[in-house]
Sequence to fold (265 residues):
Amino acid sequence: MRILTFLIAALVQTSSCWAGITPHRAIYDMSLSSVKNGSNISGVSGRMLFEWADVCDGWAVQQHLKLRFTYAEGDDSNVTSTEITWESKDSKRYNFNIRRVNDGKETDRFIGKAELNDDGGEVVYSVPTAKTLKLSPETLFPSAHTNLILDKASKGDKIFTRRVFDGTDEEGFSDVSVFINSATPVRDEMEISPKLKTNALLAQSSLPVRLAFYKPDTETGEPDYEMNLNLLANGIAKTMRIDYGDFSVSGILSDVEPLPAPHCQ
Fold:
């Protein structure tokens, strides 16, 4: 299940209208938000640990997600997703290591490297099988994509679409349509954990953003999934909602702390 790569890798230096990104470690409580008639899912619960770090030559992102799905028939399943990525600060190179486990059995594993240049780029997968893919010149990696979101928001732009490569499946890329709303005051946002109300990292307005992810060359015109999130000016996502069509999952920030700056030479 593709969950949050575009969110978790989406933290990079922004334009002068937005504060610089704060490297941080965050925990989100995940739960079932809505379900459509006919879906066999009756409950979702879990947690996500997310870490975004400045490692001098790039941005290192780790996501560890554990979800328990409960079904109408009474059965349940445990899904674990681990995503470890690195993106160079010039947004030209990207390494990825993706692993998903369902009830103790590995279901997906994708490891590889990608590189962009003026004429496009190339991805080299080493797992699950050795292969290469070509990237079109307009392709972005995840951090550069969110940098573009924040840059356009600072200029008042509301809608745009770009192709983004994240390495989370055999093709690894999606066409992402972004819809940006005006920033909302802190007091008007979704309720979060009471212990976070005085956290200085969260004392700022958020940017409501909706992202629709399409498979390339889709014929249905329907997104693969959609994501709504409140993105703070320092790059921290305060809340999120991922809509998979027949059900949606919400994540609310339960804890966050800054990470120390690296000692770069």
Summary: The chain has one domain: 5-258. The mean pLDDT is 86. The helical segments are 5-8, 142-154.
